[in-house]
Amino acid sequence: MTPISKRIGVLGAGQLGRMLAIAGYPLAQKFGFYGTSDDEPSALLGHMHKQSDDVDSLVNLVEFTDVITYESENTSIEQVREIAKTTPVYPAEKSLYMSQHRGREKGLFDQLEIPCAPYRIVDSLDSLELAVTEIGLPAILKTTTEGYDGKGQFVLKEESQIKQAWSEIGNRELVLEGFINFQRELSIVAVRNANNEHVYYPLVQNVHHEGILRYTIAPAREVSAEIQQQAEGYMQSLLDELDHVGVLTLELFETVDGLVANEMAPRVHNSGHWTIEGAYTSQFENHVRAITGLPLGDTSVRQPLAAMINIIGETGPVEKVLTMPNAFLHLYDKEERPGRKLGHINVLAVDEDSLYKDIQALSEFLPKA
Ligand code: ATP
Ligand code: MG
User: Is residue 63 part of a domain?
Assistant: First the structure.
């Protein structure tokens, strides 16, 4: 083992774990995964500890590792707390606890004076009706836990929809959020290590279709230095309050009145995939560095502009990507399925014209609308 080698255990074995391992190998890091099957994207990138094997596979993973991290904010708190008795888990319990519940997350935003949509937690039809009168319409109703890719959400436009919304996604705890009239969706990825170093990537612009991120432009166009600083300030407060170690992502709405926080994720994020070729140090490498106690890497961009296009549902004409000089193909080795994230394409460009030309050439990977 080289002096900086660590054995990293990842709870989950999807594409995020796969890209963490790909980024960690040049630093002589070793990986183990806690997953469900040998077909998962990370399966061939380290020791696979399958949940189905027997009750000890998590114990085996923890014994194998120096540090544990996870791919999803839906990771079990109890599991993390148990592991943390013997092995460091980064990001630690508090980051996970706060980001796996939309109500707690918004409470934290309020505490740190980070603007977010007005909201009410509801747990019955009556409390939902009351919340609608307080928040007003339109509003967006979300499950407090377990939502992703826009699942577990209902956009309420009229009072007549309240009963339908409650029966479709209710009968459990929900949060009603005021609808934010945003100009753009932005996000920021930040990293902190245990030595309290902080680094920030530039704000990026995210475009969604049917609840799924389709592409990201990095850095977002026409972001003033003040707005970037404001976003970094929000991240610094969050990182410090959580004593966060690793990558943290904040999704934001840009409005005429400034930035409004949507949600955060205590992990590498789809809107940070552009950093693999687009930044001097990728979000994946910086996460690995942070959790293994290494100095954090430079987050500056390698080219003035980058784009990340998600490959969703069908793999598509990927050979074409390989013929484009500034395009980089990343496939996760997953079976095609509607709405599934199968890979992404990063594009680097010297200016806006050439970026949009490249995006145009890749339009088969984008939704028609
Ligand atoms: P993902 O997994 O893509 O991050 P998610 O299921 O966690 O999504 P959110 O990010 O909360 O859900 O919401 C999905 C999308 O719905 C947002 O990207 C945004 O386009 C829209 N949206 C969410 N909340 C609001 C709001 N309060 N006002 C306006 N639009 C919203
Ligand atoms: Mg989101």
Answer: yes
**186 close to ligand 1 (CB < 6 Angstrom):** no
Same domain, 347 and 250: yes
**Ligand 1 within 6 A of CB of 210:** no
Pocket test for ligand 1, best of 186, 254, 262 (most atoms within 8 A of CB): 262
pLDDT tens for 219-269 read 999 999 999 999 999 999 999 999 999 999 999 999 999 999 999 999 999
Domain limits at 158?
Answer: 118-178
Query: Three-state SS string across the chain, please?
Result: CCCCCCEEEEEECCHHHHHHHHHHHHHCCEEEEEECCCCCCCHHHCEEEECCCCCCHHHHHHHHCCEEEECCCCCCHHHHHHHHCCCCECCCHHHHHHHCCHHHHHHHHHHCCCCECCEEEECCHHHHHHHHHHHCCCEEEEECCCCCCCCCEEEECCHHHHHHHHHHHCCCCEEEEECCCCCEEEEEEEEECCCCCEEECCCEEEEEECCEEEEEEECCCCCCHHHHHHHHHHHHHHHHHHCCCEEEEEEEEEECCEEEEEEEECCCCHHHCCHHHHECCCHHHHHHHHHCCCCCCCCCECCCEEEEEEEECCCCCHHHHHCCCCEEEEECCCCCCCCCEEEEEEEEECCHHHHHHHHHHCHHHCCCC
Distance CA 120, CA 110 (A): 13
C-alpha 13, offset from chain centre: 15
Q: Are 70 and 218 in the same domain?
A: no
- Whichever domain contains 141, its CATH number is 3.30.1490.20
Residue with tokens 């395009």: 327
Q: Ligand nearest 312 Cα, by number?
A: 1
For residues 192 and 263, state if they share a domain: yes
pLDDT digits (tens, 9 = 90+) for 288-305: 999 999 999 999 999 999
User: Average pLDDT of the chain?
Assistant: 96
Q: Are residues 263 and 133 in the same domain?
A: no
Tokens of 140: 């967006």
**What's the CA gap between 217 and 350, in Å, rounded?**
13
